[in-house]
Amino acid sequence: MLTSPVVRSGLDVLRDEGFKRLAGKRLGLLVHPPSVDGRFTHAVSLFRNAGGFELVRLFGPQHGIRGETQDNMIEWEGFKDPATGVEVCSLYGQHRKPTPAMLSGIDALVIDMQDVGARPYTFNWTMLLCMQACAEQGVEVVVLDRPNPVAPLGVEGPLLDMEYKSFVGLAPVPMMHRLTVGELAVFCDQRLKVAADLDVVWMSGYKRSLWFEESGLPWVFPSPNLPTIESCLVYPGFVLFEATNLSEGRGTTRPFEVFGAPFIDPDALVRVLEDWNLPGVLFRPMHFQPTFHKWGGKVCGGAQVHVLDKASLKPMLTATAVLCAVRELWPEDFAWKQPPYEYEAAKLPIDILAGGPGLREAVDGGESPHSIAASWGADEKSFREASAGSLHYD
Fold it and tell me: 250 is in which domain, residue-wise?
């Protein structure tokens, strides 16, 4: 039997208000599988049954409105939704920013997506591009807020250098930013001067110190390779492995928690990582064989990261330590991935993921992970100050 959650998401609040702020409007709705209320009812179903407004068009982000596309750079095409007869527009294909035609006949675009609190997650930037397009076309934007599953970990990592902006980073935020999706919308609107007609439906009962599982809200995985809350905890750092020749665990049952390559000796790797006394984690040496993606069908040596103490976890520091260890132990085998990556054809993937060349240069230069992490202090402080006015909770 379902119990009432501690937190009501923006969708729950909107539902309980009787959708009154949308009355009489023609709507677009940007959603994906986690766009459910506390009773597991999807937003599309709620909007279909609510009445009082017209649902004109549906939109979907990376991985598809139904969540079926597996990897980065796998585009999908729009279609007509068989359940509603409504047109579905893809924002991860020929267009990533809604066109004027997509927004025609719409008074307000409602956005309900589950973010994971990391700058490279493209849903953030789909939202920003929608805000910009709506501002240009005079369309209201309504963002339904949801918990940030890594918000209790705070801010970590270097700020994005805007010379390295891409679809994995379009605003000057650090790798891990602590903001909810609604707060990030407010921050981007103010910092980038979008001038959107923005209305955020804030959550009820939410505190930034709450872990997602404490919210009582249902967890529906936002993309195929973030199936669990545990994978989301390490993702803000381990996403960096996408920019290397290391498997980040795609093609296994524990993506982003498992990593490695055929040239790695698991025990040697873990000995080095243990020497750095990384907080909150234990590395277990292991072998695995991805069924697809990097090193598909080949046996890889590597490790699984086990989070023993969430409160002290530093995902970016931890991932940086892995990069430093592999670079030190196997300098002839380790390699940075070459472009293209997420629609960037010139700059190195590691540079656009990390927010600039600094991380790559430090790892290649043999710096220790702790000294690299210490260099982010000024950026982290700067962002906490710059984003303070965008915070709604606590």
Answer: 229-377
Task: Clarify whether residues 303 and 165 are in a common domain.
Answer: no
Q: Which residues of 217-229 are buried (b: 16+ CB within 10 A; e: fewer)?
A: bebebbbbbbbeb
* Number of structural domains in the chain: 2
Same domain, 197 and 245: no
Q: Quick one: 261 and 211 in the same domain?
A: no
- Within this chain, do residues 297 and 204 fall inside the same structural domain, yes or no? no
- Do 108 and 126 share a domain, yes or no? yes
The domain boundary residue, chosen from 206, 223, 240: 223
Contact yes or no for 252/293 (Cβ under 8 A): no
Query: For residue 128, what are the CA distances in angstroms to 31, 93, 97, 182, 355?
Result: 14, 16, 9, 11, 18
Please state whether the predicted TM-score (pTM) of the whole model is above 0.70: yes
What does each of the 394 residues of the chain score in pLDDT, given as a tens digit? 566 789 999 999 999 999 999 999 999 999 999 999 999 999 999 999 998 999 999 999 988 788 777 666 577 687 788 888 899 999 998 899 999 999 999 999 999 999 999 999 999 999 999 999 999 999 999 999 999 999 999 999 999 999 999 999 999 999 999 999 999 999 999 999 999 999 999 999 999 999 999 999 999 999 989 999 999 999 999 999 999 999 999 999 999 999 999 999 999 999 999 999 999 999 999 999 999 999 999 999 999 999 999 999 999 999 999 999 999 999 999 999 999 998 899 999 999 999 999 999 999 999 999 999 999 999 999 999 999 999 999 7
290, 185: one domain? no
CATH number at residue 137: 3.40.50.12170
Q: Which residues contact 308 (CB under 8 A, 6 or more apart)?
A: 280, 281, 282
